[in-house]
Design brief:
The chain has a two-stranded antiparallel sheet. Helix 1 runs antiparallel to helix 2, helix 1 runs parallel beside helix 3 and helix 4 packs parallel to helix 6. The protein is globular and about 85 Å long. The chain is mainly alpha-helical.
Length: 213
């Protein structure tokens, strides 16, 4: 197993640890937010590996079939696990319908990419998709921290952690919905173009067949 694939696998291994930290079975559930800080740091590290494995695979020329399978699976499991866990961990910020929208979007895009692959073309990550990834990280981390802190006070500076979490989560829902529409429009255009190419190819083949006969 090469380095990029090992990094992808490490992200999958981090997920049970992340869920354990957020669970009631975590033994160090202190009064000073240790649980929230550990979970946030672990999620940020896992998110960093999400971009690192792809970068290293391209840089080192180690793009493999296994890596192409592991990377999106690890990404989807990580996001899904975090959102589902937060529905129970901080339901005031992450509502059930929010989880349905975000997770449903992930499955929709995976389905579109699977169909695109079977049709012989790919759907590239758009700028909206990249923005969605960033907003998801901010939303998850802020929602975890908001479980313990309503706000941070540094003298005259006050950071409303809870309000940031709520804003980040709803902004993630908005960006996820818009990017899903963007992906679908791009998919529809390509599938329509592929269908027209097949019809043209079929007509030319029939004409050649009729001409030779």
């Amino acid at each position: 197993m090469n380095l990029p694939n090992s990094i992808s696998m490490s992200r999958i291994v981090m997920i049970p640890l992340f869920l354990w930290i957020l669970s009631t079975h975590f033994p160090w559930r202190g009064q000073h937010g240790e649980q929230e800080v550990l979970a946030s740091v672990l999620f940020v590290l896992a998110s960093i590996t999400d971009g690192l494995d792809g970068y290293l695979a391209r840089r080192r020329g180690q793009i493999t079939t296994m890596g192409m399978l592991l990377d999106p699976i690890a990404d989807k499991i990580m996001v899904t696990s975090a959102i589902v866990a937060l529905v129970a961990y901080n339901p005031q910020v992450v509502k059930v319908w929010i989880a349905v929208v975000i997770i449903g979007r992930e499955f929709l895009i995976s389905g579109l990419r699977s169909i695109a692959s079977s049709e012989g073309f790919t759907i590239e990550a758009s700028d909206l998709g990249k923005l969605k990834t960033v907003t998801q990280i901010v939303a998850v981390v802020s929602a975890i921290l908001a479980h313990h802190w309503d706000r941070w006070e540094f003298g005259v500076l006050v950071i409303p952690v809870n309000w940031i979490a709520i804003a980040a989560v709803y902004f993630t829902v908005l960006v996820s919905s818009i990017s899903a529409i963007d992906y679908f429009v791009g998919f529809w255009k390509k599938i329509d173009s592929a269908s027209k190419d097949r019809r043209k190819s079929s007509v030319l083949s029939r004409r050649k067949s009729e001409g030779s006969s």
